[in-house]
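Study this fold:
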Amino acid sequence: MVLEHLPFDSFDFVKLDTQGSELAILHGGPRCLASAIGLKIEVSFTELYDGQPLFSDIDTHVRGAGFQLLDLRRFYWKRSPFIPKLGRGQLINGDALYIKEPKAFLQDLDECEATKNRILKYVTVCLVYGFSDLAVWLLLRVQDAGHFPKDLGEELIRTIKADDGQFGALLREMRLRLGGVRRMIRRRLWIGRNDWADSDPLW
């Protein structure tokens, strides 16, 4: 209920990491969900706190509010007293990244003031988290629908594609160099004395 009393008309992006109370907060802030473009929510796949909602509960609620899952950064724990060097352990929790369902977002633009700014915010969320394909897809659709200036849309698409090409070449070079270094470190060092947890890479 606290979210409903905050002095803001809308929220662009919501991040929740509240030790198991995320679903209660979402239930208490329907206005927040109605206006948000993106969500990043800590979710659990096993109960760490008594009565804690799990990923399936949060996912059902968030999808019902018109969002779709874009990505999931997963965290794994290994059980003591034996913590093996190999294997990731059990999937325990994660950070779930959601975005407003693209087709629903496009439909809502007909009733939205400051349409251009809202589109730019959607594109920004996509680019920050590495979903340039969705950013370009959306820009093409909003141009076709007359919601966005065609010249600005085409300029943004050219910039996104150019940056992607340059970044892709850099990533390939880094992977080649870092792959060999990582293998050498694993061969020569004792890794994992306290290696009880593992996760996907950072976004």
In short: The helical segments are 22-27, 30-35, 55-64, 102-108, 115-128, 132-144, 150-188. The chain has a mean pLDDT of 84. The domain at 1-100 is CATH 3.40.50.150 (Rossmann fold).
